[in-house]
Structure formats: C-alpha cells, structure tokens
Amino acid sequence: MEKYNGIKLEYNINDNPNFLKSSLLGFQNILTAFSGIIAVPLSIAAISGTNVEETALMVSAALLASGICSFIQTKGIGFGKYKIGIGLPTIMGTDFGFVPPANAVINTMGGGLAGYFGATIMGAFLEFILSFFIKPLLKFFPDIVTSTVITLIGITMMPVAFDWVGGGATAENFGDPLYIAIATFTFLLIIFINHYGRGFITTASVFIAMIVAYIICIPLNLVDFSKIIEAPWIALPQILPFGITFDIKFLMPFIAGYLVTIIETVGVMKTLGSVCEVELSDSDIANGVRADAVGSMISPLFGSGAAQSFSQNVGLIPLTKCASRKVALFSSAILILMSFCPKFAMLVSIMPTPILGGAGILMFGTIIAAGIQSLSRTRFTTKNIMIIASSIGVGIGITIRPDIVSGLPTIISSLFSSGISGGTIVAVLLNILLIDKKY
Question: Where this protein primarily resides, as one coarse class (predicted)?
C-alpha cells in the first residue's frame, strides 16, 4: 500500500517496541482519548441525577470497559467469519451519539439507568446481527464515498478540538487568552518535536508536549490536585451496579443510534486501514463492527455504555508514526489498571482541556489530510463533485447547527444527529441515485 501522505511509519503493525517505549506510547493514546472516555459517563450521570459515589463508579466502569473493548478490537479474537475485532491498534469508548437515546429511556420513558443498560445490550445484539451483512453493505461505500467520509470525520471533529482550546464548551471563561496560549504552545511544541525530532522522540511527540504543557499549567493554578487527594487508591469493579431492565420499548430510541454507529465505524475502520498502511477486506471491516457490538454487550455489565472506536486515536497514528498493535494493547492494560486506581485516573482527568485542544487540532487535521489525499486519487466527475460537495456541506452544517434536525421525526433526527452520520448518509444515497454522464 502507498505510504500515508508519504510518511514512513516508525513502528508498523507487528513491530514490538520495548516495555518502556510501549508504556509511554500506550499512555500517549490514553491522554488523547481520556476526555472522550469519561465525558459520556459524566453526561449520563448528570441526566440520571446520580450522587458523587455513583458518578465515580460510572467513570471507573467506563475506563474498565474501554480497556477490555480496546483489547478485543486490537487483538482480534476468533477466526474466519466468527472473528471479533479488526486486529489493528484501536482505542474504544462510549460515543456522544448515545446520550440522546439514553436521556429518552432514562427520563422520558422512565426506564432509569437499568432501562438504559438493558436497551444498550439489546441494541448491541442488533448491531452484532447486522455485522454479518457488512459485505453487501460495503458495496455502497466505493472509494469516492469512503474518501469523503474520511475527510468528514476530521472536519466534524475539529469543533471538539476548539471547544477544548477554549477551556471546554461549558467553561464560564471560555476562550480565555491563557487557555488559547496553552493550546498554542502545545500545538507548536508537537509540530516542532514531530518535525525536528528523530526516532522515538518523534513518535512520542504528543505525549512529550502534553506532559510539558501539563507541568507548565501547575504554577498557573490550572490544575486542582485536591480531587486527587479525595479519591481512593483502590476501587474494585462491580457487576450490574445499577441493575438492568430488558423492555423492547426501551430499544426503540437506540435503533437509530446503532445504525449510525455502524456507518461511523465503517468510516473509522477504512481510515484506520489507510493510516496503518494495511489493505482491509470486507471481512476485516465486519470484524471491526462486530467488536463494537460485543463491546457494547459487555460494557453495561460493569455500568458503562455502548462502545465505539475513537477516531481521534486514528489521527494519532500518522502524527506519531506509530501503528504498533503492541502499543495499543499496552493502552488497554493501562486503562484497566486505571479503573482500579481512582487516584491515577483523576491525575489524568484534571488535565486542562486546552492541552487536549492543541493536540486535537493536529490529530483531526491529519484525518482531513488523509481524506484529501484519498480524494486526490479519484476522478472528479460531475457525479463525484456533487457527492463531495453535498456530503461535506451537510456534515459541516449539522455539526455547526445540530438543532436543525430536532423537529424531524425521531428516527430521521437520530440518523442525522451528527455531521459524520448525516454526511455519510447523503454520500451513500447520492452515489446510488446519481448516474455518471456518458459523453
């Protein structure tokens, strides 16, 4: 396969960095994904009105589930058509797309957390069944659609990065010049290390820059260590800590969410194959979707939500030139250990969000670059231009103004609830409906 953007990977899929390097690079993955992993359980906790202890339990459960699911997706379990996991370096977590259906089940339908976890498992079985039909579904994802979706993934994630730059979307002093300065420092330091560094230094550029920025933030009073002091050293996971209720009516809001997950996962898996310089078969993509489904069955048992592959960590691969499967497996192990040690997890969770923002701009930008490179190899026919323009236009529009679809029927509004899913649906439909002109 052609090198991604002409960049030579320092560590390929089967390379085995030593223990120290794998640990540092694995932790780099976690720094990138951590806010995404804990954001959804915090949102679910707010929706359900849990107390401090229950909220902490949900965060620890999310870390444990993320570690287990990331291991399954990265390692790949089983064989043939029954294999689960794509076998490429992946970090998993719960997607924000499941927050609206969770709110519907917990509050509107009165199912509470037990109903939410039951609906998550039932929906996961639906996704698992559909994973066996990915091959015919992939006929609707030719290169023009896939390339557009890859570009769209990066574009629609960029507002998240700038929310981080400003201190977090809900920050009272959002956009404080100090926040922007920290994000800019992190951003430039990553570029400098990545461009001028050599070997492992380049590979660990994001980790090094984020740690340096973290240390700088301490004397600026942007790091609150009191939360670490309050957190316990050890906390063991619990099985079904909030109970579970299976009711078919609770499944309804989750159907659209899982359909969107399949669409987004196909795009993420395609991007993952590109940045890892691995040719993926239809079966490989199906294995990746199947791992999402199995992960979503396992996660609620510990008190966490549906699992999905994180696109931000896909963007980390070309940026750090590290695609080692071993590193991702180390990330999985560290996440599991962190779930047992709330103090350590808290040390990462109190990292100022502008640091993530500076790194996020580059990570999501590399995904956009992957899409542009892929698009450059397609023919710019009238049909293809219409697909690109319409998909990216709709995707950006929904990302900027997600409330535009709130008045539509529930199923349609759920399908178009994110820029990635909305833009992907438009690209697929136009590819089917438009016929290339013959001149």
Answer: membrane
- Residue 78 φ/ψ region, left for φ over 0, alpha for ψ in the -120 to 50 degree band, beta for the rest: left
DSSP letter string, 21-80: HHHHHHHHHHHHHHHHHHHHHHHHHHHHT--HHHHHHHHHHHHHHHHHHHHHHHH-BS-G
Let me know: does 305 contact 44? Beta carbons within 8 Å: yes
Angle at alpha carbon of residue 322, lines to 298 and 315, rounded to 5°: 65
CA distances from 164 to 30, 99, 126, 291, 368 (A): 16, 20, 34, 29, 19
Distance CA 21, CA 159 (A): 32
Let me know if 147 is exposed, middle or buried by CB neighbors in 10 A (0-12, 13-18, 19+). Answer: buried
Start-to-end CA span in the chain (Å): 33
Among the listed residues 247, 240, 325, 316, the one whose alpha carbon sits nearest the alpha carbon of residue 33: 316
> Six-digit token pair at 105?
């089940």
- Residue 302 has a pLDDT of 92
Residue 407 has which token pair?
């008045």
Q: Helix, strand, or coil here: 229?
A: helix
Is the pTM higher than 0.85?
A: no
Q: Using DSSP, state whether 309 is helix, strand or coil.
A: strand
Q: For residues 319-325, give the mean pLDDT.
A: 83
3-state SS, residue 407:
coil
Evaluate the CA torsion angle 238, 241, 244, 249 in order and state its sign.
negative
**C-alpha dihedral sign at 112, 118, 120, 123:** negative
Phi, psi dihedrals of residue 308, rounded to the nearest 5°: -150, 150
Q: Distance between CA 91 and CA 382 in Å, rounded?
A: 38
Amino acid, single-letter form, for residue 142: P
Q: Mapping DSSP to helix (H, G, I), strand (E, B) and coil, where does residue 344 land?
A: helix
Phi-psi map region of 235: left, alpha, beta (phi>0 left; psi -120 to 50 alpha) = beta
Q: What is the CA radius of gyration of the chain?
A: 21
Q: Which residue is listed with tokens 């790091």?
A: 223
Contact 26, 328 (CB under 8 A): yes
* DSSP state letter for 106: I
Cα 399 to Cα 420: distance, rounded to the nearest angstrom:
8
Return the beta strands (E) in 302-347 as ranges: 308-309
362-384 pLDDT, tens per residue? 877 877 887 888 788 888 888 88
